[in-house]
Design brief:
about 350 residues, Rossmann fold, 2 domains, about 25% helix, globular
Length: about 350
């Protein structure tokens, strides 16, 4: 699989998360929400994680931050001192000192803020939990981060109900950045905002990334946002990454049939042009995944190996008209595997 050139801040290897079947709602088997996911994330990079609802992208993000305990795999995180630690193997007590280096921006700016706390209390809470600085120093840090996210110092005495959705999301961003993290997971961070406000928040996140040298894992379903905001994109289906590529290459020439279907559903600029997303059926049931490629029951290009062999995520190179390699990417599809694709001798 193609990895960024810089030493990774985060290396995910074979990450899986399976939920056991509940006695109250018996299922054919465990819910295999995430299956053998691997990727690298370089310092300062923004990696988009996309897919339909139920594809496993949010579960993957929560396992990385250890909001959920992975079933298997490694989450290798490079600390500020350069030491690499496997977050998946650490007990909760050992995770606490690492929490300031990894933060999340939540989807809903309304439910993610405690309405009983002032802005100063919400944003400064991580400082209080980790007992950093004196009360005056904490207040100064709160004022400083509020300014950086586009809010005023006097806002710190107000409550969340005094603010718009975009302002509330800025408060959430301030809370996430108050500890100066290295890794920020943004879980649908702009999906609940109006389009004009989305652009403002995305520009803010870009500015903050440059100022604080942040690394983003950006979970989203809005592909237009991903195209303009992310450096690389990982496409997930039924708990697996099916394509991983630089954003420009993926949007200009998707290789996996599922990626092609997702991109065909992006609303075109011309309102008279109809959307083409017409895949039959629903996303694969994680309690009873089909044999072979999980996408094959919906794939318009399915052929024999797809129904019996699980495709591996293989690196493939893209060449220009002169034959020069200008980008490499990874795709899990038998159509892209010379050993299996139709017509191979």
């Amino acid at each position: 699989m193609n990895a960024p050139a810089a030493a990774p801040l985060l290396s995910v290897r074979g990450l899986s998360k399976h939920f056991p079947a509940r006695a109250s709602a018996p299922a054919p088997g465990p819910t295999r929400a995430v299956n053998d996911v691997s990727f690298d994330l370089a310092p300062g990079e923004t990696l988009g994680l996309v897919g339909e609802s139920g594809s496993g992208k949010t579960t993957t993000a929560r396992c990385i931050l250890r909001a959920l305990a992975p079933t298997a795999g490694q989450v290798l995180f490079r600390q500020r001192d350069g030491a690499v630690v496997d977050l998946a193997a650490l007990p909760e007590r050992a995770l606490q000192p690492l929490r300031p280096q990894m933060q999340m921006i939540f989807q809903d700016p309304f439910s993610s803020l405690n309405p009983r706390l002032t802005v100063a209390q919400i944003v400064g809470e991580p400082l209080d939990i980790h007992r950093l600085g004196s009360p005056r120093e904490r207040e100064e840090r709160v004022v400083d981060i509020l300014r950086k996210v586009g809010l005023q110092p006097e806002h710190r005495t107000q409550y969340p109900n005094a603010f718009s959705g975009g302002q509330r999301q800025r408060i959430g961003i301030a809370r996430a950045l108050i500890m100066r993290p290295a890794l920020v997971v943004a879980d649908e961070a702009v999906s609940s905002l109006d389009v004009s406000v989305q652009a403002q928040v995305l520009n803010l996140l870009k500015d903050l990334q440059e100022e604080f040298r942040l690394t983003y894992l950006f979970v989203a379903h809005n592909l237009d946002v991903v195209r303009n905001f992310c450096d690389r994109v990982a496409v997930m289906y039924a708990g697996r990454i099916v394509e991983l590529a630089p954003a420009a290459g993926l949007f200009d020439g998707p290789l996996h049939p599922y990626t092609q279907a997702l991109l065909s559903a992006v609303p075109p600029p011309d309102p008279d042009v109809k959307m083409k997303f017409d895949l039959p059926g629903e996303i694969a049931d994680p309690t009873r995944l089909p044999e072979g490629c999980a996408f094959h029951p919906r794939c318009p290009e399915c052929f024999a190996p797809c129904k019996r062999l699980l495709p591996e995520l293989r690196t493939t190179a893209t060449t220009d008209e002169l034959g020069c390699v200008y980008a490499s990417r990874a795709v899990a599809c038998h159509l892209r595997d010379p050993a299996h694709r139709p017509g191979h001798a």
